[in-house]
Amino acid sequence: MMHYEDAVNWIHSRLRLGIKPGLQRMEELLEKLGNPHQSIRTVHIGGTNGKGSTVTFLRNILEEAGYTVGTFTSPYFERFNERISMNGVPISDESLTKLVERVKPIAEEMEDSEWGGPSEFEVITAMNFLYFAEYETPDIVLEEVGLGGRLDSTNVITPLVSVITSIGMDHMQFLGNSLEEIAFEKAGIIKPGVPVVSGVSQPEAAAVISDQARQKQSHLHVLGEGFTAVATDHLPDGERFRYEEDGASESFDVTMIGMHQVRNAAVSIKVAVLLGDHGFRIDSGHVKRGLMKAYWPGRMEKVSDTPLIFLDGAHNPEGVAALVKTIQERFEGRHVNSVFAALKDKDLKPMIEPLSRAVDTLVLTQFDFPRAASGNELLELAGRGIVADDWKTYVDEYVASMREGEVLLITGSLYFLSEVKPYLSKKLENNRINK
To answer: CATH number for the 4-293 domain, one of 3.40.50.1820, 3.40.1190.10, 3.30.420.380, 2.30.130.30?
Structure first.
């Protein structure tokens, strides 16, 4: 019998096959597993930023209405199992191991087929379908797109609703060098006759999505047109906004910080409304409580009040733009010290330059990950800042000396934050105990 560590190691070993866009291999793998994806009801969520937050808003709304909800998300934050979760609870080690035992022989047998063996993401995607079809049977599964949409391995489903949260310049080596090209890839999740909810704001990207929806005869619901969200107040730990649709208006609070989260919440509300056409009974009380409960790690996440420390996974230019806006709205008159680390294959200059202008001190560092950029490489792009070779030593020393009115903002790659969060949580806990 396989052990959990062996199961996870085998999944990761599929990484050597790289990213393999295209659906033939995925369809072949699923056919050999009995097509589990055809027996689950899904919402398909794509977009450059905001996918994870939208998933968590929608999950909490549905749970408040009494439904069981499966989620498939990436990347994980602290533990691999988080990627496949039921009502927010990650899959057990035992179930994950059993799934690998089912998928592994088929994947290895496929090595000699015309399509070749499945990649890491294809394997995990297949495991998620199998889990929700046979092991747990939730009322609905929220499937997050891995990369792009059109050729992403999740794009074998016909969902009840498709969602495109936002479009930005990320993963250009796979998706194209313009907003239109990227929007075309993201719009690939639109299915004939299936309604689409879009939070996309740029006219050139929105036009592509509109065109694809028209070709597929899918009813398109666009934030800012059919339904709107108007921010009314910055709360100490969140935002208040007014949601308006069909002449009706209602006020909601979210406990996630930033105007982009208001947009994600509004998109989630619209999806919940559309699920009503499929028998889901969701009222405004469920929405209110769900939005208040929703939490997603590493998205302007406050990990300490005294000293004031936030983690934010701004890992592409649009993510940094949202972060800069939040800094301007929230931290006026405070000294903001930002520690930043990122992956080499990102579009780094348009991330570092705006961040460098928005904060008082910019600290550039690296972390233990194959594609991580070094602090010195980041400094070359930034033109200003401090290099910290060891982020742990820097954070330890800075946290010990933080004064009233200072904010520590640790940002960049989500892989970086997934190293920082457990370390920082333990450190802050020890500090509290020793006081």
So the answer is: 3.40.1190.10
